[in-house]
Amino acid sequence: MRKLSAKGDRPMRLGRRIEPYLYLIPAFVFLITFTYYPFIKNVVLSFFTVNKYREVREFAGLANYVRVLTDEKFLQAIGNTLVYVLATVPVSIVIGFFLALLARKRSRLSPAYEAMYALSMAVSASVIAMVFQFVYNPSMGILNKLFHTNISWLTDTRTALLSLIVIQIWANIGYNFIFLLAGLRGVSEEVLESAQIDGAVGRKLLIKVIVPMVSPTLFFLLVKDIAYAMTTCSFTLILSYPVFHSGGPNGTTETIMSYIYGKGIAGTNYNAAFAATMVGFLLSSVLMALSLLLERKKVNYDT
Q: Is residue 303 part of a domain?
């Protein structure tokens, strides 16, 4: 009887071991179908010549990459993208952190100003773009009226990229604020009181105690914002392409993704689009790797 029961237990044990993996099958199917397969296909096709009907003609080797990397517009798009990342990511995180500090202590008005600070997270990119298009309007915009200027913010080569950077910062603040507020409210009051008794007050308390305790959240937002800034082109396409049919005046707002859109979707030049996509992926990978190096030195997971 014991032997029979032992044999009968084996299928049950095997079923229990397999069961968690069965739940993961739909996720794996989704990832393979919509992420890994298109990526691998893009890698392969970047080494071939493809016509406008996406028919493979011949092996091109590195010719597509050479054409893209010698294209002044693409090199400008890389520079614009890096400026975009370096400007929007830290500024939006710092502002979100400052607002979270202000809202950390609950009060009767907490729901009101929390909703106000997080508002940008609930607004779509198209709506944000339309609102700022009115703000930047050279004749009716509130910005020119407020500062008594006459600047065409979105069409001037000196201000076009800066204008989109400001929009992206505002769009990121709400998301960053929500996560940082949750992180700050999770900091133990007892730990803060102990640190204050030991002499950690003001800026010292902030830098030595609060920031290390929310560093995992800061790291998550850093990685998320870098990935998003490297792959976004919403505001460029909405505010620049309808006017210039490209990335802003003289390409000043062109990003890697908008360049890929212009070549692959608008221009059906898939050879350039495939190669540009891989270059953008490699640049994003480098930035992610640098972020992971920062995690080892600056992120504190101790509670």
A: no
Residue 105 to residue 277: CA distance in whole angstroms = 45
d(CA 103, CA 165): 25
Q: Which of 154, 168, 164, 174 is nearest to 99 (CA)?
A: 174
Residue pair 174/99 in contact by the 8 Å Cβ criterion? no
pLDDT at 303: 57
Q: What is the 3-state secondary structure (H, E, C) of 99-115?
A: HHHHHCCCCCCHHHHHH
Asked whether 151 and 177 are in contact (CB, 8 A), the reply is no
Are both 260 and 148 inside the same structural domain? yes
- Residue in this structure with the two tokens 């504190």, named with its chain if needed: 300
Q: Quick one: 120 and 210 in the same domain?
A: yes
What are the DSSP calls for 30-82, one per residue? HHIIIIIHHHHHHHHHTTEEE-TT--EEEE-TTHHHHHHHT-HHHHHHHHHHH
153 part of a folded domain: yes
DSSP category for residue 267 = S
Residue 152 confidence (pLDDT) above 50: yes
Domain range holding 20?
A: 2-63
CB 220 within 8 A of CB 178: no
277 and 205 fall within a common domain: yes
Say yes or no: 93 and 204 in one domain: yes
Domain termination site, one of 41, 63, 85: 63
Count of domains forming the chain: 2
Most confident of 21-30, 75-84, 114-123, 239-248: 75-84
pTM over 0.85: yes
- Give SS3 for 219: helix
| pLDDT digit string, tens, across residues 79-112 | 999 999 999 999 999 999 999 998 888 888 888 8
Give the domain CATH number at 220. Answer: 1.10.3720.10
